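Z., the sequence and structure:
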Amino acid sequence: MSRINNTIVLITGASSGIGRACARKFAEEGARLILTARRKGRLDELTDKIRNERNTDVYTVKLDVRDRKGVESAIASLPENWRDIDVLVNNAGLSRGLDKIHEGKLQDWEEMIDTNVKGLLYVSRAVIPGMVKRGRGTVINIGSIAGREVYQKGNVYCATKFAVDALTKGMRLDLVDTPIRVCTVDPGLVETEFSEVRFRGDTERAKNVYSGLVPLTGEDVADAVVFAASRPQHIQCAEILLLPTDQASPTVVNRV
């Protein structure tokens, strides 16, 4: 039986992409799922699919991680049988624009910082104390290769993912005297809605990001997340860098 069977897993940004794939992979392992996202309709559709396929317990919450009070209220108001969160997957995140920093849009910057950094902090601050009190738990932050190397015009997005890397390391240091494990999974090029969001619905521009190579899928990243969560308690997958074979760095990509 899987080590995460019947564990409670909270996934932010679960309505699409990596978050959606993580939900389905954890369901395959028999986990009970708390799924959060801004798009409740998509969450409900995913929940129906998971229940039909796996007969798994799912609890959904419409949540914008940028809303601190909303996050605090959502976690505090979880039903009694959903409060003992074993695994937190901080997945909610996005990129906006691809501009030189002196030409960047302030709204884009604020949305990335509020979601990728402050949102991760708000959710972590609400969930981790319960893990510490219970003496168990795994935090998995979805980072990026962009949090390891800066690329041209990636400025603020890269800065937010560098922050995720720093926060992950900080969490690990602060929690070293507890049984809580802190992990990061840092993908390279993953073909999801990521680029469509970055380019605000320009599907042709988004498609070109992945042309000429075989990118990762959300399911590939979800495999790594579930792997980290399901290791024996004495093993902490501190960092996983996951790249397509055709990618060597943020900008060095073999296209045919």
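Residues 8-242 form a domain with the Rossmann fold fold (CATH 3.40.50.720). Strands lie at 8-11, 32-37, 58-62, 87-90, 138-142, 181-187, 239-242.

Let me know what you think.
H.
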